[in-house]
UniProtKB/TrEMBL annotation:
Protein purpose: One of several proteins that assist in the late maturation steps of the functional core of the 30S ribosomal subunit. Helps release RbfA from mature subunits. May play a role in the assembly of ribosomal proteins into the subunit. Circularly permuted GTPase that catalyzes slow GTP hydrolysis, GTPase activity is stimulated by the 30S ribosomal subunit.
Xref: PANTHER family: SMALL RIBOSOMAL SUBUNIT BIOGENESIS GTPASE RSGA
Organism for this UniProt entry: Lactiplantibacillus garii
Residues covered by the CP-type G domain: 103-258
Gene name in the database record: rsgA
Name of the protein this chain belongs to: Small ribosomal subunit biogenesis GTPase RsgA
Xref: Gene3D superfamilies: Nucleic acid-binding proteins, P-loop containing nucleotide triphosphate hydrolases, Probable gtpase engc, domain 3
Cellular compartments per GO CC: cytoplasm
Length: 354
């Protein structure tokens, strides 16, 4: 069986990155369950584990493969292999580890679009959307807000008004699987070779949406509890699936608790960041300092005070806040490229192509 990996998102950059290792197989991680991976190669799917050298060299969890990664493998048998290397990522979605403070946990890699899902029932929460947007902007993929279950919403205008400030610069799609025509805007992001991921809390309808896009029931779904509008966790493993449109979709487990590992606060809170440039002090905390433009905007009624509180909370929470500039840059290099050496190789290849 021969598989055209370009239909699974292979780009010239990944081909060039793999060219230096002609004896290794190139593949994309399509499924992950703990330390076991399924990797799609040009000659079929392989079950893979990390090589001993990989485990020894890796220093952080963010260097390990995740669904969507392009990797180099050494075949052991006809259907088993060892992962030797993760190729530099175009984008990566990472959250803070629930169990290890200050550590990152990868969600998906090499995405073009991140669909941030929330349902238009009692689960709707603007502050939670700010948190997801902060995570998505940092990934380098394009965030899109997807409001699901519009058939259950009785106050759409009120919720859209609450979302207005948060969603600046981000497309918002309102849909319901009970109204297939409402799903049409999603298709523009699922063209051949492009990869999208659905993220959001448990029970907001991610798996149901993906099933609708697939045109079949691939993923297990459960209805929300009628008594409290809370969702039950259904997806337990990350996987990459090909859509009838030719695009690729990654389903991710619902997140009951979203800890930030890193995030782009300036993009998510552009209004606050712009006002902050007018503060008297560069390191203004927007609390008690004189000449604070952010507080002044709140007092004039031009800025929602809850938005400032959310901004400050996320700023304190992000694990990078205590790192100096050099440590911050090193942490980002490790997350995107797998280390400084890998980044230098990418730079050298780019210079040769000039």
């Amino acid at each position: 069986m021969i598989i055209d990996l370009k239909t699974y998102g292979l780009t010239p950059d990944f081909e060039r990155a793999a060219a230096g290792k002609p004896h290794a197989k190139l593949g994309r991680v399509v499924n992950q369950q703990r330390n076991l991976y399924r990797v799609l190669t040009a000659t079929g799917e392989l079950k893979a584990q990390l090589s001993g050298k990989f485990r020894h060299v890796a220093t952080t969890q963010t260097e390990f493969p995740t669904v969507g990664d392009w990797v180099l493998l050494t075949a052991l048998t006809s259907d088993r292999a060892q992962i030797q290397q993760v190729l530099p990522r175009r984008s990566v979605l990472a959250r803070g580890s629930v169990h290890q403070a200050g550590q990152g946990q990868l969600i998906a890699a090499n995405l073009d679009t991140v669909f941030i899902c929330t349902s238009l029932n009692e689960e709707f929460n603007v502050r939670r959307l700010e948190r997801y947007l902060t995570l998505a902007w940092e990934s380098r993929a394009t965030p899109v807000i997807v409001l699901t279950k519009m058939d259950l919403c009785r106050d759409l205008a009120t919720k859209m008004a609450a979302l207005e400030t948060v969603s600046v610069g981000v497309e918002t799609i309102i849909c319901s699987v009970k109204e297939p025509a409402s799903l049409a805007p999603l298709h523009q992001y699922t063209t051949p070779g492009r990869t999208v991921a659905f993220i959001g809390s448990s029970g907001v309808g991610k798996s149901t949406l993906i099933n609708a896009l697939l045109g079949r029931t691939e993923l297990v779904t459960r209805t929300i509890r009628a008594d409290d509008d809370k969702g039950r966790h259904t997806t337990t493993a990350r996987q990459l699936l090909q859509l009838p449109t030719g695009g690729l979709v990654i389903d991710t487990p619902g997140m009951r608790e979203l800890q930030l590992y890193a995030g782009n606060l300036d993009q998510t809170f552009g209004d606050v960041a712009q006002l902050a440039t007018r503060c008297r002090f560069n390191d203004c905390s927007h609390q008690t300092e004189p000449g604070c433009a952010v507080r002044a905007a709140v007092e004039r009624g031009e800025l929602d005070p809850q938005r400032v509180v959310s901004y400050q909370k996320l700023q304190r929470e992000m694990s990078y806040q205590d790192l100096n500039a050099r440590q911050l840059e090193q942490a980002k290099i490790e997350r995107m490229f797998g280390g400084k050496r890998a980044m230098q190789q990418v730079v050298r290849r780019a210079k040769k192509r000039r």
